[in-house]
Structures are given as structure tokens and as C-alpha cells.
Amino acid sequence: MTRQSFDAIVIGGGLVGAAIAYGLQRQGLATLLLDEGDIAFRASRGNFGLVWVQSKGLGAPHYQRWTRGSAQEWPKLAAELKERTGIGTGLQQPGGVHLCLSEEEFGKRGEYMARLQREAGNFGLEYRMVRGAEARDMLPGLGPQVVGMSWTPYDGHASPLYLLRALHTGFTGAGGTYQPNARVEGSSAAPNDFSVEAAGQRYRAPRVVLAAGLGNADLAPRFGLEAPVRPERGQILVTERTQTVLPMPTTTIRQTEEGSLMLGDSKEDAGFNLGQSPEVMRKIAQRAVLSFPWIANLNLVRAWSALRVMAPDGLPIYDQSERFPGAFTANCHSGVTLAGTHANRLAPMIAAGALEPGMAPFSARRFNVRSAA
Hints:
The protein is α+β, with helices and mostly antiparallel strands.
């Protein structure tokens, strides 16, 4: 007989939902993970794979701390998943760089990083602006167009697909229930008493977590929540495999464990259009070749686009329902970077029944001017 009662239901089987479900199950909560399947706009399959700190949180120190915290949690999460599942996530954290192709870019980047450091306050932020011979010692093969770069020791990268597989395997291995092809067809909400209809079944739990990416916009009001998220298209190019040549990732280029180079970082307002633009692809390739001219000798073997989950201010939304306690929402566009905090910090809060006070700046109420005032 199919189990229908759980301690928690997580809606959304991508990187965000899987990390939270894994964390809840590890906390001892019998958790159901509902995954809509391939009809969903799968942001996870298009994730670039950076574990990135240095470009996050300008004007939002709480987000900078949350991101740094996740980078710190990542080694523990990766080691635990490897031990429990035998699946490596490909995590490497050698630091990372943002390349600047003009003096103007370098100057603006220096100002950006200095402001991030000031906003970090006592929390601190270690970074360096690197030029010339030192930059080329750190990254052999840099092109003459590269004026310099910013570096921080916190950054790294991992495989989004290996991570997703490890989280799912770790979740079910710990006793979690995974239901694929389970689009939410109906629901009801009362304080600490929720029911969800999916895959022809009705499930109940005192906690429900909305982690369905762009689908949260429609789901949230059913549970007394708001998720004003919109799609932002990003495109990625992938080269053939080559010898290991990049000792650390950049904002727009990283080398996978298998040897391929991933090139990306486009940001497009294209609605829900998952198509690809030759002009955008040309710009991605052009910047990559200006950064490392030897990339021009590699063949491109794959290209795709995916939709990021973006709030109006670009920051994550984490919220709990005042009307229906026990209902939570998690929305972000950094499912790989934030996997550490989602599994190791956010999930324990949800298990305890409430978000910690320090999470208040992430609430969607920040978009309601009257409430924020």
C-alpha cells in the first residue's frame, strides 16, 4: 500500500528541492519528494556548476554571508554524499577569478570588490586584484586582451548532474520517498496540516516546502506565500575534452572533471523561450577566445539554454507562511552554490518548524513597500 502520510512534503525535485529533502530526511523526518518530471522548466540541468562567492551579495550583506556559508558547508556535504552514495560531486575549491578585458572593466571590478569587502564588515572578505605576470602565472595561456582579474579563495565548482544524482540517491538511501512525474494537481492548507494531490494520490504532512523553481509563482498563493519569480534565459557552450589546462574556474569558463570546457554567463529576458540565439552564442565564444586564445582550436560539441529562477532583485527568496505555519518556500538561481546551506542550514530550520530571525531579509515581504516599512 502506498504511504500517504509524511512528516514533510517537498515539491520540486531539482537541486534546491533535492538538497532540502536530503537535509530533512537526514534530520529524521519522513520526507516525500515530488518531482514534476521533464515537463518542468529544469533550471538544474542548465546550471553552470560554479560554487561562487565573489559576485554575490553587493548591497545585500546577508546574501554574501549566506553564500560564503554555503561554500564553507560544501566540503562536508560532498564528503558525506560520497560516503553515503559512492557518487562524487566533482567538487574543487581552488579559488576562482573574474577576468577583465579592459582597463575600464578592471577599474569597475576593483570598485565592486572593495565595496563587497566594506559591506562584509567584521565578517571579512579576502580578495586580490591581480595584473600582468602574476595573473599569467596563476592562469597560463591568458590572452593579451586580459588586463587583470579579481581573485578570492572561496570559489570553486562542481558537477550539477553528479550533485543532483548524489542528492537523490542519498535521499532515497536514507529512507526518503521519491515520486517522479508528480505534477501537483490539487492542494489544501491549514496550519501545520497540508494535503497535496499528485500522481493520482493524496499526500498529507504538517510541513510543506515549495522548491519548484518557476512553478513556485503559481503554487505559493495556495499556501499563504508569495514567490514573485520570473525566468531569465542563459546559454552554455561545451567544447570537446582536452587535457587539464585550467587550474581554477572563472566566472564564464570552467573545465569539468572529464576535460570539457563550459562557456557561459549570458543573461536574457526571453520569457519562457528555451531557444538559442546565434548572436549570444557568438559573444560567449568570442569572450572565451579573447580570454584564452587556445580555446579557438577546440571544437564545440554541445550547446543548450536553460531558465534561471529570478526574483525582482536577483536575490533568493526564503519564506514561511504566517497564515499557514509549516509552509515554506525556497527560490534561487544558484542551486549548486547554495546546496551546502540548503542541506545543512535551511533544512534543520524547516525541521524545527521556523526560519531563524536572520533569514528575515530573504522574505518576499521585502517587495511589499508597506510591509517592509
